[in-house]
Amino acid sequence: MIVVFGSLGVDLVTNVSHIPHPGETVLCEGYFMVPGGKGANQAVSAARAGSKTAIIGSRGNDGFADLALSVMREAGVDVAPVLPVDKPTCVALITVDEKAENAIVVASGANQATRAEQLEAFDLAEGDIVLLQREIRDSENFAAIKHAKSRGARIVFNVAPAGPLPEEILRLVDDLVVNEHEALVVAKAAGIEATDPVEATRVISERFGCAGIVTLGAEGVVGWSKGARHAAPALKVTPVDTTAAGDSFTGAYAAALDQGLGFEIALARGAASGSLACTRPGAQSSIPTKAEIDDALRQS
Length: 300
Ligand code: RIB
Fold this sequence. Notes:
Elements: E1 2-5, E2 9-15, E3 32-36, H1 38-48, E4 53-59, H2 63-75, E5 82-84, E6 90-96, E7 102-107, H3 116-120, E8 129-132, H4 138-150, E9 154-158, H5 167-170, E10 175-179, H6 180-189, H7 197-208, E11 211-215, E12 221-225, E13 228-232, H8 245-258, H9 263-277, H10 290-299
Parallel strand pairs: 1-4, 1-8, 2-6, 4-5, 8-9, 9-10, 10-11
Antiparallel strand pairs: 2-3, 6-7, 11-12, 12-13
Helix pairs in contact: 1-2, 1-8, 6-7, 8-9, 9-10
The structure holds alpha-D-ribofuranose.
Alpha-D-ribofuranose (RIB) is lined by residues 9, 11, 36-38, 41, 92, 104, 106, 135, 243-244, 246-247, 283.
């Protein structure tokens, strides 16, 4: 089973000609609202990729809460461990430009109230995968990792958005998932002098004994495990919105591990899921199903 310990919320998305510079105002036609949050996106990805999935998190008592949970419910994610708290449901303000690149501001609200005790109250079994990101407090993530590890869970940590991790925590992580920027931030904080994200991820993997996975956008993904380099290509797609591509990768990657598939297959399934997510607008609205991943890999 996959247990996501992480964020959830609602994305307010605008499509703009270009992302505004400081002091600039950009007009656009309108906006759309979709469920988002890196934790929730990854939960949807894992569930759509065929794994039993639950999410532990927090929501407000406001009009956004139901929308934030709606797609997870449809995808079969167990949202019962999401607690109501006295803060607003998280809202992310997202602008997407004509090149499908985005800029995001996350108003965290309820996500900041998520506590490691919520995971401690959950009935974790040995071999479960606990999947984390960096949109809740570091202190709670770190306590959750220590608890999950003591219960025999596998820790998959997507260090997004980027931030430093203590070495003590890096040693507990089984699978570290980063993009190019995140790889360099984690490496630098750990005293690793690399300027190339793939090399930085190799050194992290070697030094801390985890699998190190770096997503490279259109170049696919490189994964380091036990000193060996593995790679999977991205699908050849025309991107319309790259939001949640990394989440789609991470959820499908974790699902493949949960289903007992090997590291290399997990990379390939994650890469296909991330690529497909770029072909549709929005976060959870863009995440593919297991059948879509299978089809895309058959045709590639
Ligand atoms: O990774 C994409 C997600 O980041 C969006 O859904 C938004 O909610 C932000 O948290």
